[in-house]
Design the sequence.
């Protein structure tokens, strides 16, 4: 919030001077503990301090082939998981991306300001087109432009995401600056907000690779809805190395990853963890990590199950969120249309 000296601003002004944050996740599968550590837990912490908007980016999800019934179900699953993890719809604006058509409308204008080369350089495009070689569609290519529109349509100041999204944020910043330069100052140039610990949770099976919800090897990923036994078993079988001591060393990716997970789920620092396990081996350490994750995820899973059981209430929450988001998006889009030179309707 802006510092105020002397008299406090009136309530309305106080509300509008709060900085804005926006973020989203794709409903392409159940959420993982990687997404929780890299993004969701930050959203929960930041929502009280900022004017916050969180969406389920279903339009982004169809850049990879989706079964319609599954996509519909997962969109609601992800929204329920946001709330279960601690996003309070009374505090934050929570909505589904396709419910706010202004995102796609702005996206077209930004598309016409983006160079072909800029999109070709995106590593997520390169990775995903290699992974889905049978469906390298243009949406996969222009994906980051829609993401830029998601952010710029609300003039977000801050975007809490994991490390893998840094490059997309850089493009978003360039597009905001380009529009502002070609027309006149319009968009806020957003900053990424990437956590120091947990920005990249690695696969449990190939610890040099990011933990991914689309990994075909289920043992590599801890899902937020995994059962206690599944969590224990996945941690127990996590790939480590031939060493024996529990010390944080980035070169020993498997152990470092488990230490990060333990640190986030217990709140302990690396030094505390090293001390706790000094003289103990991988077996004891893995058991503790498994139990910490079980204890941490259990209550979230229970809240999730309750919330997901009342679909009418969930849909009503999402409708309210979309109405609030649209109201804001419409105003910005109107300004952008005018500056672009479109005749007013
Ligand atoms: P996929 O692995 O299916 O490609 P994704 O990265 O596209 O998943 P999203 O739902 O789009 O998943 O990601 C939501 C957020 O979670 C993003 O901010 C992303 O940076 C973060 N995130 C995803 N996976 C991880 C991870 N392993 N570690 C840390 N953050 C992550
Ligand atoms: N590209 C992101 C998901 C995403 C997003 C956004 C994140 C789409 N729109 C806006 C933050 C802000 C991803 O793949 N993780």
Sequence:
């Amino acid at each position: 919030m802006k510092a105020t000296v002397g008299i406090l601003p009136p309530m309305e002004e106080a509300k509008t001077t709060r900085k804005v944050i926006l973020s989203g996740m794709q409903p392409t599968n159940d959420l993982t503990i990687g997404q929780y550590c890299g993004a969701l837990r930050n959203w929960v912490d930041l929502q009280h301090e900022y004017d916050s908007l969180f969406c389920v980016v279903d339009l982004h999800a169809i850049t990879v082939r989706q079964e319609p019934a599954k996509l519909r179900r997962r969109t609601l699953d992800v929204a329920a998981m946001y709330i279960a993890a601690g996003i309070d719809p009374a505090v934050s604006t929570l909505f589904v991306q396709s419910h706010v058509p202004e995102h796609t409308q702005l996206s077209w204008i930004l598309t016409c300001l983006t160079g072909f080369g800029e999109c070709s350089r995106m590593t997520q495009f390169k990775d995903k087109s290699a992974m889905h070689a049978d469906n390298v569609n243009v949406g996969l290519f222009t994906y980051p432009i829609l993401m830029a529109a998601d952010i710029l349509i609300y003039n977000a100041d801050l975007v809490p995401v994991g490390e893998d999204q840094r490059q997309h944020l850089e493009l978003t910043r360039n597009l905001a600056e380009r529009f502002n330069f070609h027309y006149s100052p319009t968009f806020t140039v957003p900053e990424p907000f990437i956590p120091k610990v947990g920005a990249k949770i690695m696969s449990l099976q190939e610890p040099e690779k990011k933990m991914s919800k689309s990994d075909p090897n289920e043992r590599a990923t801890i899902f937020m809805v995994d059962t206690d036994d599944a969590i224990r078993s996945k941690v127990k079988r996590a790939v480590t190395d031939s060493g024996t001591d529990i010390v944080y060393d980035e070169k020993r990716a498997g152990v470092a990853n488990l230490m990060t997970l333990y640190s986030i789920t217990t709140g302990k620092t690396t030094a505390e963890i090293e001390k706790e396990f000094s003289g103990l081996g991988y077996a004891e350490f893995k058991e503790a990590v498994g139990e910490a994750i079980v204890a941490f995820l259990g209550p979230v899973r229970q809240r999730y199950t309750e919330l997901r059981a009342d679909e009418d209430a969930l849909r009503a929450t999402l409708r309210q969120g979309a109405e609030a988001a649209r109201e804001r998006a419409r105003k910005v889009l109107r300004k952008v249309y005018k500056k672009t030179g479109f005749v007013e309707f």
